[in-house]
Amino acid sequence: MGNPKAFLTIPRQEAGYRPVHERIKDFSEVEQTLNTGERRKQASRCMDCGVPFCHWACPLGNRQPEWQDLLYKGRWKEAYRILEQTCDFPEFTGRICPALCEKSCILNLSAHEPVTVRENEVAIIEAAFREGFIQPARPVRNGKKTAVIGSGPAGLAVANQLNRKGYEVTVFEKDEWPGGLLRYGIPNFKLSKLIVDRRIELMEREGIRFRTNSCIGKDIKIKTLLAGFDAVCLAIGCEVPRDLPVPGRDLKGIHFALAYLGQQNRLLEGTKAPEDTISAKGKHVLVIGGGDTGSDCVGTANRQGAKSVTQIEILPQPPLDFNPATPWPMWPQILKTSSSHEEGCTRRWNLATNKFTGDGKGHVKSVETEQVEWIQPEDGSRPEMKLTGNKEKLEADLVFLSMGFVHPVQDSIIRELSLKTDPRGNIAVDSNGKTSCDQVFACGDAVSGAGLVVRAIASGRQTAGTVDRFLKQ
């Protein structure tokens, strides 16, 4: 460790965002970068803890203290080699991961100034691409073929790992371009699709085949697919959104968040716009749901020229810096203000949606909300919601539902193979990712329900190991 006292003398410094007045006019990435000298200073703040909780908290088991020290010493190539051993796609996680590692950093627990692990990570991978440290791998083929259904983060991780182990890998994707959630669920201002394209192109050069516009279960029967491959992995995600069955739901102008975000990303890709293009220009926009996807709708609506944007959440507003109800090692439920919120948004909490009201022409005009209270039972069980009768009408001529997802969308695969599912409708697997059907495996959100990109990648890596052991029997 080069500078064991740097954490005492060097404060945390984030790269920050581009100015609001500039970034609101385009869909380019909002996050900035530090220069090389300042980045190395930030890496020096790592304390090289005896028990590194950052490593423990990371679903991928990234060895942060090791590559932080190498980064501080300017040994970028070695830092990359350590990072790539545990993370297939640092360019994705370094941009969009909520940084579970930083929440468990000792400097966060003691001083609320964690090491800038996420930013340091993306700095390493960008240097690796820029300096040519990354070259296409040339695996020795073992003669066996595997198929991956779905090209989101989990599917890409499975494909990458199996390819490196010598299997011929074909990835089937129902959409027109590979990337899944990375391409169609995350706005360009958080993750440029040039970054996704760069990785896909590298994987193709390494021998992975991508077959797009191929919906398994519809265009190709899953049993037909099984006949041509030694193993098949389902990485179909969890794309069925949670609906809001209240009066007026059938009015025009009410959309699921992911449909809106995906459409905008397709427009930026140059795909022909459908006749029913969703535009927030000049409209009062209401986002129902306070999570990251809702925040992404806020940023997109602002860039489209919305007249106003309001985001409501049924849960209470969390505290700003520390929440005694969620102490470490729990995930801290604290107030998160995203770059999109900074660009213009009215945020409200403790509001339930009662009904949508139209304008007499079949289009939504307003939303009736009702304030709720959350009562904590004496037995310590989960809080119970109570309606207060305090109702309010919010003007809204464009509404986005962003309340999470319930189960995988491609039920035809599940039915055709008679796969077992859990009570939530997700694909049931054993501890290694094997389904109830021989030769078929599953990973990512299709198994766990909607979650973090970093967890999907970790699931894909683990399942690839299971497929490898299965095919070596």
Q: How would you characterize the overall build of this protein?
A:
- With about 475 residues, this protein is an alpha/beta fold.
- It is built from 20 helices and 15 strands.
- The strands form 4 sheets. Strands 3-2-1-4-15 form a 5-stranded parallel beta sheet, with helices on both faces.
- The protein is globular and about 65 Å long.
- The protein starts with 5 loop residues before the first helix and ends with a helix.
- About 45% of the residues are buried.
- The mean pLDDT is about 95.
Percent of residues in helices comes to 25-40%
- Which percent range describes the beta-strand content? 15-25%
Global morphology = globular
> Could you tell me how far the N terminus lies from the C terminus, measured between alpha carbons in angstroms?
44 Å
Enumerate the strands of the largest sheet in spatial order, edge to edge or round the barrel: 3-2-1-4-15
What structural category characterises the helix and strand content?
A: alpha/beta
Can you tell me the residue ranges where pLDDT is under 50 for at least 5 consecutive residues?
none
